[in-house]
Amino acid sequence: MLSLPPRSGPSGPEFASSKQEPAINTATRRSVRAGIAFTAGAVALTAGLAACSTVKQLTAGEKVSGAFQKLTDAKSMKIELSVDATSDQLVAFGKAIDDPIEKKNADLLSDLTLSISMSSDKPLKDSEAFKNGYTGGANAYDLKGVAIGYALSTKKSGKTYADLRLVDGKMYVKADVRGIAGLMGEDTSKIDEAMSALPPEAAPIKDVVDGKWLALDMKKFEELTGGSAKAKGKDIGRGAVPEAMPSIDPSAIREFTKSLKDALADNVTLEDKGKSGDADLIRVSAPARPLVKAMTKSVESLTASIPGYPALPSGEDDLKDVPDRNFSADVLIKNGKAQAVTFDLAQFDDKLDPSVHFPIRLAFSNDAAPLTAPAGASELDLTKFQEAFAAMAGSGQDFGDDADFDTTPGTPLTASQYAELAKLGVDRQTAERMNKSGLEFEQIKQIASASTDAPPLDSFNS
């Protein structure tokens, strides 16, 4: 557990929510998002700063730098992000910030783990994807021999709620849609009602909901959309699949590392704290406000190529609630390799009692099994998938009468706004439908822009 800087005041922050959300409430999600950003930054910082002449604690810096470099000596690596708090700690945290977390929801949150796995037929550090990134070419999703997987699962039972793999140019997806809905407190019977009302063309959607493996050939996807030069922003409102898909580029992580190192080398300190069990413990400390601001810019550069990724808070008003003092994360090193990074989200709030904690953990290992294509995956026919969405849009199908779903239309669009959206590839009929569903002009514009403005990440070699 971290030794936290002193915090003043026993009361929670003054932002009580007027209505409680199921599973992960607003305040918790906000804190988790900030914590994930910091933890990712801590990894990048500790991996890159040792080579920087401004690091004063050379011994600690060398330990940390070598610990992360050794992870890529192996042919596989697994990163697991989880809440390192007990359900009682989460309940206490919710009470302290005046936004209660129910015990059953705390139990769920404390049991979830998001994992990212990578494997290659050679050491990861020697793979072309890690050294140079993908080059686009015939298949922008060919990661040059590196397979990547994402999974959301539970610690206790090992149940997997979502699984995504990118192997040999194909994307494989499987999800327990009903289970995820249950996690969020939704009535799963409404899903069954919605599925029974879908047209035959929507069979791929039914397969996803039924938890079947689906495969998407990314090369065929690019061919269908006309390639990078032809499809960007074209016919968004006429059934075409946008060319810009979320990019999973390992070299982007290294670019992220470089930008953080350049921005924060003068502010970060590394301190060797001795042993924690059988692992060495290195504490990484930095001033909160400058670090969050610099990290936000770095994260924005990392996510710029992901269509639809929400803008991150970066202005002075957005950062006014970030404590103007140091905060820290602990890096655990075992047998010369990074084992975990731990961080307490409660550090963000000066008003919390020092006894309140919300620790999160980013664990690393090289014992992950090689990622392979799942057996029995059904190939997704993109043409039929488009037809399914077109059929649903044309039928005006609603998917249940959920009293909690806000169907209030957005502010009516003007002629000039329709014209501007048309330039981005959104026809009037689609714009009207999106507007009536509750989206405002700027939101529609952002969605359209995201499908056209997905620039490739620059090479990290400079």
Structure, explained:
- The chain is of the alpha+beta class and 462 residues long.
- Among the domains are: 26-133 and 249-374, no CATH class; 406-462.
- The chain is built from 17 helices and 12 strands.
- The chain has helices spanning 26-48, 58-71, 87-96, 103-111, 128-132, 177-183, 189-196, 203-209, 218-225, 227-230, 250-264, 288-303, 316-319, 382-395, 415-423, 428-436, 441-450, and strands at residues 76-83, 112-119, 147-154, 160-167, 170-175, 214-217, 269-276, 279-287, 326-334, 337-344, 359-365, 378-379.
- A 12-stranded mixed sheet has the order 7-8-9-10-11-1-2-3-4-5-6-12.
- The radius of gyration is 23 Å and the shape is globular.
Q: Which residues sit in consecutive blocks of at least 5 with pLDDT less than 50?
A: 1-58, 134-140, 227-248, 398-405, 451-462
Q: Provide mean pLDDT, rounded.
A: 71
Name the helix and strand elements from N-terminus to C-terminus, one letter apiece: HHEHHEHEEEHHHEHHHEEHHEEEEHHHH
Q: Give me the side-by-side strand order of the main sheet.
A: 7-8-9-10-11-1-2-3-4-5-6-12
Structural class: alpha+beta
Strand content: 15-25%
**Terminal Cα separation, in Å?**
38 Å
* Total of DSSP H or I helical runs spanning 4+ residues: 17
Percent range for helical residues?
25-40%
The major β-sheet equals:
12 strands, mixed
Number of strands: 12
| Structural Rg | 23 Å
Shape: globular
